[in-house]
Structure formats: C-alpha cells, structure tokens
Design goal:
The protein has 431 residues and is of the alpha+beta class. It has two domains: 29-150 and 309-381, Periplasmic binding protein-like II (D-Maltodextrin-Binding Protein, domain 2); 152-308 and 390-430, D-Maltodextrin-Binding Protein, domain 2 (3-Layer(aba) Sandwich), CATH 3.40.190.10. Helices cover 47% and strands 13% of the residues. It has 19 helices and eleven strands. It has helices at 2-28, 44-59, 73-85, 100-105, 119-126, 130-133, 158-163, 175-185, 207-215, 235-249, 263-268, 282-288, 321-334, 337-347, 354-357, 360-368, 374-378, 391-407, 412-427, and strands at residues 31-37, 63-69, 92-96, 137-138, 141-142, 145-157, 187-188, 194-196, 274-278, 293-296, 308-315. Strands 1, 2, 3, 6, 9, 10 and 11 form a seven-stranded mixed beta sheet that branches. The protein has a two-stranded antiparallel ribbon with strand order 4-5. It has a two-stranded antiparallel sheet with strand order 7-8. A hairpin with a 5-residue loop joins strand 7 (187-188) and strand 8 (194-196). It is globular, with a radius of gyration of 26 Å. The termini are far apart. The complex is composed of two ATP-binding proteins (UgpC), two transmembrane proteins (UgpA and UgpE) and a solute-binding protein (UgpB). It is found in: Periplasm. Residues 1-27 form the signal peptide. This is sn-glycerol-3-phosphate-binding periplasmic protein UgpB. Keywords: Signal, Transport.
C-alpha cells in the first residue's frame, strides 16, 4: 500500500509536467499562413519568394508562411475567391492592384487599417509612393499593400539607333519623334518583307494597360477614381488608339494582335527596335539582350506619364484572425526598405518606397545600372492603372475593342463607342 502511494506521489508531478509540455508544444506550434502567389511556373522568382518566406519564418517562429504558386494573376484571383467562398480563404495573396474593387465587392478582404496600431505602422503606410497608393486606397481606407509594382517603359536598341542615324543616348520624347524614329528603324529585305519593325506594343493580356501608355500622355483618364464610370468614347481616347492603329497602317509596327509574352523575345532577336512593356521585364532584358540597350520614360504628347501596374498584398477577412495578423506582419516585413531594394534588383519591379532607393545597395545598383531608376523617375507623372467595379468584365470589353481596332474590323471611334455602351451597362448598378 505504501509503495503504491509512493509511486502515485512520484507519478503526479511527472503527469503534470507532461501535460504542461503538451500545452506548451501546442501553444508554440506555428500558425500556418497560406500565401497565394501569382506565378505559373517554377524558376528564379519562386526561389526568391521561397527564400523570403523561409527568412520570415525563421525570424518569426510563431508563424509559418507557406507560398502556394497559383498560376497567372487571373488564375490566382479565381482560386483565391473560390477558396474565400468555400470558407477556406488564404491568409494573404498578391493580386493585381486593379483587383481592389472586385475584392471589395466580393467582401473578401479586410482593410489594412484594421491592423495598423502603432506610429511605426502608420509611418510604414505613409512611406509608399503616392502613385502606388492610388490603386491601393479608396473610400478613405487602405485595402492593399504595394509589393511588385511597375510602370510601363520604353526599351530601345542603341545599336539599331546608331545604324539608323538616330542618337543612341536620346530616346524619342514625344509622339512626333516616336513616329519618325519608328520609320527610320523599320528594315525590309530585298522582297519588301519587314525584318525589323521600328516599334512594337503588345496587345494581348494587357491591351488596356498599353492603351493607357497612349491615353496618359494624351492627358485623359480611362476611368474615375471610384471605378464607376469609364471614358472610352472620349475624343482623346479615340485619338490615342488611332495613333497606335496608324503605326500598323504605316508598316512600322506589326499588324494585328501582338503577343505580350513574345515581345521581349522579338526585341532580343532584333525583330523590333523599340518595345513598350513593363519595367518588370528589366532584369529579363538585362540578362538576355546581346546588344547595348536603353530604357526611357514613355514618349509624351500633351504631357508625360505612364500608368502604374503590378500586384499588391491583400489580407482575406475569412481567414482566422491569427492568420490575418501574421499576413499583416509578413507584408510589413517584406516591404521594409532593404528587402524592397533587393526585390527590385532581383525582379526589375519598382521598389515601393523612397526609403528603399535610399539604401546603400539600391543606390549603388542605380549608379552602376541607371535603367533601374527610369520607372521610379516616371512615378511623379504616373496615373493609377485602369480599374473599375466588375473589373474583369469591363477590362475584357476594352481589350476586345482595342483588338478590333488593331485588326481593322472596326474603326477606333466605333470600337470605343461600342465598348463605352457595354461598359456603361455593366457598371449601371454600381453608380
């Protein structure tokens, strides 16, 4: 009897200790944070994102950010909204800044302001470039955190410029100079077939964005700030589309629809002397162009300027509260100046704050490789990327209209008037 009592006395503290260990282990199990990221294939970018997640997890052992590569931007928002509707929303996702109204309409995201508690948090929000916040804030609230952001820039082959008698150190500054340069840069073989186009602007995927690189310099916006009204049939919009269409008619730009994905390759292969595309292609061009190239701001007309573009972090409101908090901490951590600077160098995207450009690493990179600063220097004259309520449907209407004009099945005026009518119908319920 005494022996049993003795064993019981011994066992009680041991059991208590085991129970305490179990509770502690449970308390210390990291919060899993599903993170949808838009990339269709593996490669350098997935390695960089995986590295960021691992570094964050190491510095914050209470969390475990898990990147999930969800395809293109379009595929990622579909997957994120499907998960949201089924009650299994990711904690966070990088989605287009232009998806903001759609995500608000779906009641899918929490305002970032809900997590901002300290003076340091408030200073962090104020530190982003205002041009990027135009697509991150509406109705007095902040809904997205700028991450992989961009503007559109002009890449040009300096060797082709020299050959054509153009100054290789000076890109075309306005539409007149751009058209003249495109004519001089266009090359034909003995049979009269074009071997090098003077200029190439892609029209698949992001046709609306490329149109904005012409409407912005023509001093007209495609939508209001509330995302409830478009101006497709404005005379200045029609004039901008006509400028693009006329480049094809004059034979200095490829006819019909031009693929987004092959445009950089056409530049590398000297099939196009000037291309208009995202600064997000900068590292790609730097690594693959086997000739001296320049990067310049978009040519002006009535003014200078470009639309911004790219992706923001959003926090999904149906994710558990601790996951939402972790997502906020991760977005804050990854956009700190040193990391934003490194991300810009790794990817070619614009660093999202002046503080990032003030870091020694990005300062040196900008001195050694000045093209890295062009997109940033264009920000003061940049406008918000086209975005409305029911954004995917309205954008498709605009993309289809642009392609109809470029294919010659409609005039620019008719294409834009038809698109205006259809967009007004879609947006009626949001006014």
């Amino acid at each position: 009897m005494q022996r049993k009592m003795f064993l019981k006395t011994l066992a009680a503290p041991a059991l208590a200790a085991m129970a305490l260990c179990a509770v502690t282990a449970h308390a210390q199990a990291p919060v899993e944070v599903p993170f949808y990221y838009p990339v269709a294939v593996g490669g350098p970018i997935t390695k960089v994102i995986d590295g960021y997640a691992a570094d964050f997890n190491k510095a914050h052992p209470q969390y475990r950010v898990v990147p999930i590569y969800a395809g293109t931007y379009q595929e990622t928002i579909v997957k994120a909204l499907t998960a949201h509707k089924s009650g299994k929303a990711p904690a966070t996702s990088v989605l287009l800044s232009t998806d903001m109204f759609t995500l608000i309409d779906e009641d899918a995201i929490a305002p970032i302001d809900d997590f901002v508690k300290t003076d340091a948090d408030r200073a962090w929000i104020k530190g982003f470039y205002p041009a990027f916040m135009a697509n991150s804030q509406t109705g007095g609230k902040t809904w997205g955190v700028p991450f992989q952001r961009s503007t559109v820039v002009m890449y040009y082959n300096k060797e082709a410029f020299k050959e054509a008698g153009l100054d290789p150190h000076k890109a075309p500054q306005n539409w007149k100079e751009l058209k003249e340069a495109a004519h001089k840069l266009t090359k034909k073989d003995a049979s009269g077939n074009v071997t090098q186009y003077g200029i190439q602007i892609p029209s698949t995927g992001f046709a609306y964005w490329m149109l904005q690189t012409l409407t912005t310099p023509n001093d007209v916006l495609l939508a209001n700030g509330a995302g409830t009204q478009v101006t497709f049939d404005h005379p200045k919009v029609i004039e901008a589309l006509d400028f693009w269409v006329n480049l094809t008619k004059e034979g200095v730009h490829p006819k019909g629809v031009v693929e987004w994905g092959t445009t950089p390759k056409d530049f590398f292969e000297k099939k196009a002397a000037i291309i208009i595309t995202t600064t997000g292609n900068l590292t790609n061009v730097k690594n693959n162009a086997k000739f001296d190239f320049g990067v310049a701001q978009i040519a002006g007309n009535l003014r200078k300027g470009s639309p911004t573009g790219g992706g923001n972090f959003y926090i999904f409101k149906k994710a558990p509260q601790e996951q939402q908090q972790a997502a906020f901490e991760f977005a804050k951590w990854i956009t700190q100046p040193e990391r934003a600077a490194q991300w810009s160098m790794d990817s070619g995207y614009v660093a999202v704050s002046q503080a990032a450009y003030d870091t020694p690493a990005l300062k040196k990179y900008g001195q050694d490789f000045p093209p890295a600063l062009v997109a940033r220097d264009q920000l003061p004259v940049s406008v918000a990327e086209f975005s409305t309520h029911d954004n995917q449907r309205v954008t498709k209407v605009l993309n289809d209209a642009i392609q109809a004009a470029l294919n010659g099945t409609k005039t620019s005026a008719q294409a834009m008037k038809d698109a205006q009518r259809e967009a007004d119908r879609i947006l009626r319920s949001y006014k």
